[in-house]
Structure formats: structure tokens, C-alpha cells
Amino acid sequence: MSVKTGLILAGGGARAAYQVGVLRGVAALLPPDVQQPFPIITGTSAGAINALGLAGRSGSFRSRTRALAAVWASLDSDAVYRTDAGGVMRNGFRMLWALLRNNQANERPLALLDNSPLRRLLNDIIEFKRVDSAIAKGELEGLGITSMNYTNGHSTTFYQAQDHVKPWTRAHRRSVPCQLTVDHLMASSALPTLFPSVRLDTHYFGDGALRQSRPLSPAIRLGAERLFIIGVSESGDDFEEDPQSEVAPTIPQVLGQMLNAVFLDSIQTDLESLQRINALVEPLNAKQLQKAGLANMRVIDTLVISPSRSLSELARDYISELPRSMRWFLQKTGSIKTTGSGGALSYILFEPGYCQRLMQLGYEDTMAQAEDVRAFFNVAPPSAEKQRSTQSPRRGLTGRQNGLTKRWLQLIGRTGTKV
After folding, report:
1. Within 13 Å, how many C-alpha atoms sit on residue 290's CB side?
2. C-alpha gyration radius of the chain
3. Residues paired with residue 158 on neighbouring β-strands, in sequence order
4. What is the largest CA-CA distance in the chain?
5. Which residues pair with 124 in a beta bridge?
6. Is pTM, for the whole model, over 0.85?
7. Is there a contact between 330 and 348 (Cβ–Cβ < 8 Å)?
8. What is the pLDDT of residues 267-312, one digit of tens each?
């Protein structure tokens, strides 16, 4: 029996483009006819969108990753949130007015940005019924999307899975079996204060990275026996040099550190905990584990691929791509010139140049770990002739497409146009 591999796709806004590059690298290293190397997939925030992008589509794994790359290469901020200055100012005024009134009975969730364009995009590009068929055929064991319940603060994983997967409840964590919809994706990716919360049943939910203290747990609960983790934080401790002088932080700099705390810290901490458990369990046999009261414990093998460069630094190179209203705000607050200020920018820069660069970096980082990836999936290295055919797919990641939704519909074959 093959080992069940779980794919962990963390949150990170625009940083999630890096995940797509890694997935394209994995697809290039695996045999071209592989349908789904990850029977268990879990995602949070923008990682949840990538998770559904993989699960909610038919075809080979290579074709799915190619389609995801086409979407991210065509993306711009207008496809995610309204960027007109008037809309941003109206939302900001509504938030201020709600605070002054001190009235909790707001007719709709408050947020600085209107992300209704993202809802329309997701409805166009994801085939949610495909998840049902993948589970029925045994191609997919389980798919989990995590959000945070604003009422009680519980980290909630909404999932679709095979019948043998049972719901679980832990401290401040719970799971809900359901039919996944665009509302679950919108809730999981609702960045706090930036995007509005989403009502699911009787409660409102926001970004899944909030209060997610155990981001590896959902995949393990769904049955994963080993984990392929794609991070969106840089390898190592800190890529950016310390500033020469102490200056008061700008608003975007503070926001960037807050987002780092939400998106980046928990998965690294949880991974360290898992590694300690592995070190404890690995030397013991079944009888020793039972005697120690650890009969249900097992070693979970992991492979982590994370950026080899600072995504915050890369983001500052593409500041000119931002819509004028957002660029004006960042310039006026001094966030372009100060150290560490690219943090917030790296999450909201949904623009083609930046996203393509992240995908390219993800592909390169995967190829740098090609030997580890092949060993993880037990795949033999290709011959020299085949190896030449797996060169960097730079051409497939560059060049902005006209008509994002039309492009995606062509890729999934709804228009009859072969791409």
C-alpha cells in the first residue's frame, strides 16, 4: 500500500504564487502521466485557493499546475479587489463611521477593500463538482480548507473527504464536513480588516491563518502519513539587514509584521513540534510505544520547500505595478524607502510581474532540491535526454494574458479552444 501524501499550502496573499512555481517544479520531476500525487490537500487563505485549483480540475497533475500558473501569470489587483480610490475611501469612511457610532449591528461586514472581483473570478475558474468525482474515484482522499470563527475564535477546517474520515475536535480547533463552495474560499482568504468576513451558516468567518496554531494537523487528521509543505516565508532567520538607525515604524511596516505573525510563524512552530515528536517516536517499536501510552503516535515524514530569497525585498522591485491609489498610500507613508516595509506589500501585490517572479523562484528552488523531491516520491532520476526537456518553464510563466477568465475557460476546455 502506498504512503498517503498530504500537501500543505499555507496562506500568504500574493505570496501564494510561489506555491504554484513549486508545484510546477514537482510536476516536472514526476512522470508526466501522474494524475494526483497528493491524495490529501489542505489549504489556508490564498493557499486554499491553490488547493481548490488543484482539486477542482481534471487532467494530469502537470496540466493542473500549468493551468494554475496561467491564472497567476495573468492576475492583477483588479481581479482580486476594487482598486479605485473612491471605493477604498468609501469603505474607509464606513469603518470609521461604524467605530464612531459604536454600533455592532452593521448590515454587512466591514473592511477596507472590496474583494467582490475575487468571488466572480473563483466562480469562473473552479469546478467544485470535480472534488466530488475525485473523491468518488479514490483519486482524492480528503480536501480541507481552514477559516477562523470570529464568534468563538476557533480554527475551523471545512472538509470534503471519503466516508472513513471522521470529524475531529481539539482545543480551539474543530472540523466540519461539508460541500465546499466559493463562500468557504472567500472566508479562508478574508485578510483581517482588508477583506470582509463571510457568513457560513450562523457565524462569520475570516482568514484561516488567524488562530491556526496547528496548520499541519488537518492533513494528518485527514489521513496523511507524510507531508509536503510549501512555505511562503524565507529560509533562514532574516534576509534583511538591520537598519542603520532606529526610526519609528510606518503603518505598512507594522501591518507587514502583523501579517508575518499571522501567516508565517505558526507553520514553522508546528513543524518544529512535529520534528520533536518524530525524534521521540522513531527509536521506539510498537510494544514500547504502547507501554509509553503512545500507541497512536507515528513518524510523519516531511519535505519543506520555502523561498531562498526574501519575498519582501522582491516585492519592492515591483512597487510600480501597484494601482495608483495603493502606490500613493505606500509612498505617502514612506513604506517604499524604509527597511522591512516590503512585508505588507508582498501580501497584496497581486500583479503579473511580481507573481511571475515568485513562480519562477518557486520552480528554481524546487529544482535546487530535485534530489530530495525525487527521493520523497521514490522517483528515479530521468535520463539525460529527458532531463533536457524539464528546463525552466519561463516562457509559460511570463507574458501577461488578456482576459483572465477567458484564458482560464480556454484551459479547462469550456470554449472548445485548444491552448
Report:
1. 3
2. 21
3. 145, 176
4. 69
5. none
6. no
7. no
8. 778 888 888 888 877 787 777 767 777 667 778 899 999 999 988 8
